[in-house]
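Example (one chain per record):
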Amino acid sequence: MKKLAKYLLLLLFAVLILFVIYGQKNFSQCISTNSLQGKTPFYSKDLAITILPFGKFEEQLVSEVKTGLIKLYGEIPVTVLSGEKLPEEAYYPPRKRYRAEKLLGYLRSRKAGNNGKIIRLTFVDISTTKGKYPDWGIFGLGSIGGQPCVVSTFRLKGKATKELLAERLVKVVNHEVGHTLGLVHCSTKGCLMEAAKGKISTVDNGSGLLCKSCQLWLNQRGWNVKCTGSVN
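Predicted structure:
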């Protein structure tokens, strides 16, 4: 009798082991399949964006940014608020420009909801610390996995036409929003998340679209966004 009980116990243990192994395999397949289909089986985060210009930012460019956000990330709610003055504490006198990380710190005091993102648009020069460079001029800066990002047209202008400036601005804004969603720089050539490295040519040559890996990454983390197009 004791031998039978021991045998049944071992059999039950073996069945339990097989169930765990088989179950984990199917669980992983479920996540992979649903992610590839753009589904998020357990949770979903709806993206919402607020645009807050600094100063008298050109309304047409704001409109282009709003359209560009919706075109890439899908029919998401985008709210445009009135412009505000640049915070004096972010000004960097030695280079006569504004520190981007201080602007982000200022933005963190604004509430945009659990999954909301805040975009600050400005025409003044902005900078941050980059490696050995204590004050490196940049196109924009986004808080990875956070709420705020800031983008400047100062280094996007050059001799660009209005159309080209708008195209560049939309690409950089969408790139910085990608950072707030948690995306880091991507090694795929032409991907929206490719690092510009201070070169306007990288922005101009970029597709303005996310590669398939970056899109999949967003899906796997529950972001309910339907990106249009992709880079292979």
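Caption: Confidence is low (pLDDT under 50) at residues 15-43.
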